[in-house]
Design goal:
By secondary structure, this protein is α/β, with parallel strands linked by helices. It has a single domain, classed as Rossmann fold. 30% of the residues lie in helices and 27% in strands. It contains six helices and eleven strands. It is globular and about 50 Å long.
Length: 252
């Protein structure tokens, strides 16, 4: 039996988000980096950084400043991603860029493609604590204006990208052929594990969020096609990291 969470969405939690009691602010813009290699790459290009534990992740800020861009990560899974986002919002963040990887569920996407989710089909258990979802096709969405700004910036930097619907799942090892076909028929082009929940949290907390995903592999056919060692994927990752960070600095 599941508690009907949509009945008390207007009620405050007994436990406040981490950071509210301390009141320590870290600025308005955060980049949430889900994958460890990307987090390490971004970290290596920051000077005068201040590194702090952030649950089981790391929070990077500039030394002596609370007005710059902070970077949080790595992380995996919707519930944990929501914890990090709640905590960033409690520390004053109101514009968030999510940077991660995804798997293609259609042959219209290739390894190394860069996509911007404009809609995320909810197949995770976190969003129902933040939004009342449609029973037929439950979806959450990023902030349209921030997504469009990010899209314009990436295109101006020479990136070929696609805006598309994604599917967010809780179970990385249960992407069965039947399930992939089902969500593809609903319009999904890629699958990952955090975005729909992060979009739901952001909407509930009235902050802006957008996402950038690099296609790392494909489950579009019955055989898994991993592309993690593909040079196009590696280059696309580096490009996405660099251009997301220039965008984040631009909107501070």
């Amino acid at each position: 039996m599941t508690y009907p969470t949509w009945l008390d969405l207007d009620n405050e939690s007994i436990v406040p988000p981490h950071g509210t009691r301390k009141g320590n602010k870290i600025g308005s813009v955060a980049v949430m980096v889900s994958c460890k290699p990307d987090f390490k790459f971004i970290k290596s290009n920051i000077v005068n950084l201040q590194v702090s534990p952030f649950f089981t992740s790391t929070l990077i800020t500039r030394q002596g400043s609370n007005q710059g861009v902070c970077i949080a990560g790595p992380f995996i899974g919707a519930p944990y991603a929501a914890i990090l986002l709640e905590s960033l919002i409690a520390k004053g963040v109101d514009k968030i860029i999510v940077l991660g990887w995804c798997g293609a569920v259609t042959d219209k996407l290739n390894v190394g493609d860069i996509i911007l989710p404009d809609k995320a089909i909810v197949d995770e258990g976190t969003s129902i604590n933040y939004l009342k979802l449609d029973n037929h096709i439950p979806v959450s969405a990023p902030d349209i204006n921030l997504t469009n700004q990010l899209s314009d910036h990436l295109k101006a930097c020479g990136n070929d990208l696609k805006k598309t619907t994604i599917w967010t799942t809780d179970a990385i090892y249960r992407e069965t052929p039947q399930k992939v076909a089902y969500f593809r028929n609903l319009g999904a082009h890629a699958v990952e594990m955090e975005c729909s929940a992060l979009f739901s949290v952001a909407r509930y907390r009235n902050v802006s969020i957008a996402g950038v995903l690099v296609v790392s592999d494909s489950v579009a056919s019955k055989d898994w096609d991993p592309g993690f060692r593909n040079e196009k994927f590696k280059q696309a990752r580096r490009t996405a990291c660099e251009h997301v960070m220039t965008f984040a600095k631009k909107i501070v």
